[in-house]
Structure prediction request, 283 residues.
Amino acid sequence: MAKDSRIEWTHHTFNPWWGCTKVSPGCKNCYAEAWARRVGQDLWGARAPRRELSDGYWKQPLAWNAAAGHMGERARVFCASMADVFEDRRDLDDKRERLWSLIAQTPHLDWLLLTKRPQNVARLAPYGSQWPDNVWLGTTAENQRWLDRRMLELANLQAKVLFLSCEPLLGALDFTRWIEDARRGDRRLVHWVIAGGESGPRARPPHPDWFTSIKDQCLAAGIRFHFKQWGNWRPVAPDELNGYASKIMFLSNGEKITVANLGKKKAGRVLGGVTWDQFPATA
Prediction:
């Protein structure tokens, strides 16, 4: 399947509009806001406008759908990298309606709707308890507080695939409560977890134990795990420092390690000697 997105876990990226409002610590160094400002667009904040995209842009998923159908494969579409589909603004309702129609017209595409506002989903999505097979619903969980707050909402929604994006990861995460609730049948459990560190000039360094713990919890619970990136910072050997900014950290076993700000490309996405590219089974 052709891939036109540089985001590791999707084939394509589609934005029904540009612009958002920051709501939690993961938003602090928002790459989408920085990108919008770079191209001269001031779109962030409750009073800022939202950028509309052309009719030609809206036709792209129809072409992706035709190509996927021709190949006999499915393609993943991340919606939206420059916005939040479930931002609660009435001036966005017409664009949401257009999006729901587009999703219905593209059955060979799996639409990945990632939101920081899962509390708005039941009210703003038209699906109720009958979600289309080609919609995956996810929320961001950058630390325990926001995991617990957002999972309360996400775990009660009926999309065929539920997922978490733990990026930028800013703290350790414990999934025990949610795994136990799912085993009792009280709530649903996510099918997929994406984890990654922060990139960019002001990237905050994650602790390596955070990623290892998430990976281990996912594998034990049968949740598919995808390690997207270290971000700017990763553990290094002494001979790798070469003048990079660095910090000393201690692992849970007491071992002292050094992490360095290598930049996203050099830091890579190998965790424990493995490139974790797991995906949920297609709905």
